[in-house]
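Pilot study result, target chain (682 residues):
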Amino acid sequence: MIEATNNGASILEMIHRSTGDLATLHLASIVPHDTGHIAQFYETDEFLLKSLSEFIGAGLKGGEAAIVVATRAHRAGLEERLREFGLDVAGARASGQYIPLDATEMLATFMVAESPEPQSFAALFGDIIAQAARRRRVRIFGEMVALLWADGNYDAALRLEGLWNKLQETHNFLLCCAYPMRGFDTEALTTPLADVCAEHAHVIPAESYTALTSPIDRFREIIQLQQKARLLEAEIAEHQRTADAFRAVKDELEIQVEDLRRLHDMSVRLTSTLDIESVLQEVLRAALAVQGTSLGLLSLCDPVRDGLMLKTSSGFGQEFLNRVAWVPPGGGACGICYQQRRRIVIEDVEVDPIFEAYRAEARLAGFRACHSTPLITRGGTIIGVLSVHFRLPHRPYERETRLMDIYAQMAADFIENARLHHQVQQELEAREQLLVWEHRARAEAERANRMKDQFLTVAAHELRTPLTTLMGQAQLFQRRAEREGHLTERDHRTLRVINDQVARLNKLVLALLDVSRLEMGQLNIERTPLDVCALVHRVVQEIAPTAEERRIELVCPDEPLVIDGDELRLEQVVQNLIQNALKYSWAPEPIRVTVTPQAGHGCVVVQDWGIGIPRDELPNLFKRFYRAKNVERQHISGMGIGLCVVKEIITLHGGTVEVDSAEGVGSTFTVRLPRAEDCTTG
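Predicted structure:
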C-alpha cells in the first residue's frame, strides 16, 4: 500500500507502486483489509460495470454490506449484472445488505457554495455506514467525485476524497471511486490527476492496461507508457518554453502597442493646435509620461546668438530655471547635446565628468540623472533640446531611448510647423496692416488727386480768359506795329517772343482743360466726314515754317481717305505727335509722316530717329503725367499730358494708337482710325 499523499512522484510511479502483483491486477482482487481507498480509472462504461459488478458481487457473496452511490444508469447496469451472477438483488436491498443511493441527490445534501461541507458529509454517511456495518464488513462504491470532476469542480472532488479518508479514521469500510479517463484529456489536468492518485491507497489503470493478462505484456506496456510519459513531459516542457517565449513576445507587443498609443495620443493633441506655447508644453508632458518622471526642460535655439533659450519646464524651482534660462554650446548635458547634435545620457551627475561643473545646480534642482535628446527636423536642422531628469541615478532602457528619439523627431516637426504657422500669422498681420495703410494712402492720394484736378480745372478756366485777352492784344499790337513801322528790330523780336510764349501758355491751358474733361468724362467729339490726307497735309504745312532747320517728309495717297471724325480733335492728335517727334529728335534727322489706307482703316504713322523710349517704359507711356526717364535725364521740358489726350481722342473715335520704340534708335507712333463706313458713334 502506498502513502495517500503526492510526494512529487509521477503518475506512472504511483500506479506502479499500487499495482502489486501484476498477474492479479483487477478491482475484485484488491481487498487487503477491512478498510481501504481504491481509485478505478476506466475508458468505457462497459468496463466500469464489469469491474464494479465483480467488486460489489464478491462482497455480497461474502456476506458483506454494499453501498452503491452512483448515477441511475450505472446503478441499473450494476443490478442487471448482479442478477446475471445469480444474486438476489431485491432480497439484499430489503434486508439492508445492499444500499443503492443516487449520487446527484447525495451531493445536494452536503454541498455548500460548490464545496462539500465536512460536518454534513460526515453525519450523512457516518449514519449510513454505521447501519450497514452491523455484524458485517462494508464495501462502498462512490461516483460523486466523478460527477464533480465532470463539472470541472476539481477542488471540490479532491476535498471530497479527503473527507472519505477522514471518515475512514472512525469507520471501517472499503471504498472504491471511479474516474473516466476522458476527464483527464488536457495537459492542464496532469497535476490534478497526480493529486487524485495521491488521495487513494490503490490506483487501478484503465482497461487498455488491465486487459493485458501476460506479465511481460504488462511490462512492455509500462515501458511504452514510461517512454510516452517522458516524451509527453518533454513536449510539455517545449510547450512551456514556447508559451514563455510567446508571453515574452506578447508582453513586448503590448509595450509596443502602448508606445504607439502614446505616440498617437501625442500626435492627436499636437495636431489639434498650432499655438507654439501649447505645442511645447504638450511635447514636454508626453516625454515625461514616457520616462515616468516629473522633471524636464525644453529649450529652443536662440535666433540671435549661438545657444539655447529655455521655453518650458516642469518640476523645477525658479532659482534653477534662472540659471538655465540660456545655455551656451557645450554647457552641461543640454549644451553638449546641442553642440554635438546627439543624445547625451548622464546616468549619475555625481560621477559623470560631463556634469562636474554643474553638480551644484543639479543638487539645487534635486536631480541625479539627466537625458538630453536633440530636436532635429526632417530637413536636418536642429531647433532645440528636450531634457528629462530623474531624482535618482537612472540608466535608460533601449525602449526609453527609442521612444525619446521618435518623440524628439515628431516634436521637432510639430514645433517647426507651429513656428512657421506663427511666422505666417505675423506676416499676414503685417500684410493686413500694410493693406490698411495702403488703403488709407490710396484714399488720401485719390483725395489729393481730386483736389489737384479741381485746381487744374479752376486754374485753366481762370487763366483762359486773361490769356485770350492778352493773346488778342499782343497780336493786335504786332499787326499795328508792322503797319506803322515805328518799332525797332529789337522791339519786333521782343513782340514775337511775347506772342510765342502767350501761344505756348494757351496750349498748356487747353491741354489742362482736356485733362480735366478726361477725368470728368466730358471730352466729347463731333463727327463729320473728313479727308485724313487733307487734314495731315494742312497740319504739316502749319508746323513746317516753325521747325527750324528740320525736314518733315509727308507721304500721302493721291485719292482722299475719308473717315467720320472730329476735325479739331484729330488735328490736335497729329499736331501732338509731330511736335513730340520734333522735340525728341535733332537735325539733320527728318520727321516722316505717312498716311496709308488699310482694310477698313485709315492709318497715320509719325516716325522719328531721336532718343527713343526704353522698352520697359512703353506700357506706361500713355498714362497721365508720365514721362520716360531718359527724357528727364536730357532735361527736355514737358508735362506728360499730350499722349494721354491723344489716346483718349483716338479711343473715342473707335481707333487705336500704338508705339514701337528703342532707346537711342527712335520712335514710331501708329494711329488707326475706322473708315467712314466702319465708324461707330463716339
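One observation from the pilot: DSSP finds 21 helices and 21 strands in the chain. A full batch analysis is planned for the follow-on phase.
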